[in-house]
């Protein structure tokens, strides 16, 4: 779909695929020094915050071969954040069973000391959802995350640390995942939390 570098003050899409972006909110900063691989994008997080980059017309995007897609990114979470702020999503995050997916900042309920990243998607039945999370990162550390969903119904949620360690969680039973929400794909909070 797209590669979005954040080296300039205004985010741009260098891939000539017709994808357009819109910046929503006043606090988003692009071209910020201190990224993992150069400059980075800084988006405030928290419940009921509407600060995001909207990938325009993606609400009409149909995933090839059903639910087949991959999203990868470097993420640095602050020591504290409020709620489960969306990092990348196409769903109304007020209910995790709704159609679509979300990659969000989160904390493990049983051990909320360190932040982590969580992947959620709805199932074809409104009351069902799947949640996968990795919660063992050091605050303010850059961590690589990738989510891959295959046409065969396998979801892989991967985390790579700067020390070379690579961790992953696999759910092989998501043939009934409902990733097509009819909402735009967004980087950051779209306000639906």
What can you see in these coordinates?
The chain has a seven-stranded antiparallel β-sheet, with no helix packed on it. A hairpin with a 6-residue loop joins strand 8 (111-122) and strand 9 (129-134). The protein has 193 residues and is mainly beta. The protein has strands spanning 21-24, 29-35, 38-42, 50-55, 69-76, 86-89, 101-108, 111-122, 129-134, 142-149, 155-160, 166-171, 185-190. The protein is globular.
Quick summary:
The chain is mainly β and 193 residues long. It has strands at residues 21-24, 29-35, 38-42, 50-55, 69-76, 86-89, 101-108, 111-122, 129-134, 142-149, 155-160, 166-171, 185-190. The chain contains no helices and 13 strands.
Number of strands: 13
What structural class results from the helix and strand content?
A: mainly beta
Distance between the termini: 26 Å
Number of helices: 0
Report the β-strand fraction as a percent range: 35-45%
* Biggest sheet strand line-up: 1-4-13-6-7-8-9
pLDDT < 50 runs, ≥5 residues: none
What sort of overall outline do the alpha carbons produce when their principal axes are compared? Answer: globular
Average pLDDT, rounded to a whole number, is: 80
Largest sheet: 7 strands, antiparallel
Q: Determine Rg (CA atoms, Å).
A: 16 Å
The H-and-E topology, N to C, reads as EEEEEEEEEEEEE
């Amino acid at each position: 779909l797209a590669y979005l570098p954040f080296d300039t003050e205004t985010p741009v899409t260098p891939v000539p695929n017709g994808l357009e972006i819109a910046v929503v909110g006043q606090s988003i900063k692009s071209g910020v020094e201190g990224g993992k691989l150069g400059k980075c994008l800084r988006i405030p997080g928290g419940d009921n915050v509407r600060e995001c980059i909207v990938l325009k017309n993606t609400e009409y995007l149909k995933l090839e071969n059903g639910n087949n897609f991959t999203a990868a990114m470097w993420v640095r979470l602050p020591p504290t954040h409020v709620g489960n702020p969306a990092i990348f999503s196409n769903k109304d995050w007020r209910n995790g069973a709704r159609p679509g997916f979300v990659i969000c900042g989160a904390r493990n309920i049983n051990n909320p000391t360190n932040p982590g990243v969580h992947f959620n998607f709805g199932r074809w039945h409104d009351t069902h959802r799947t949640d996968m999370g990795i919660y063992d990162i050091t605050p303010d550390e850059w961590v690589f995350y990738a989510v891959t969903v295959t046409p065969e119904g396998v979801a892989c949620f991967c985390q790579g640390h700067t020390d070379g360690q690579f961790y992953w969680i696999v759910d092989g039973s998501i043939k009934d995942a409902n990733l097509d929400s009819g909402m735009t794909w967004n980087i950051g909070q779209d306000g639906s939390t």
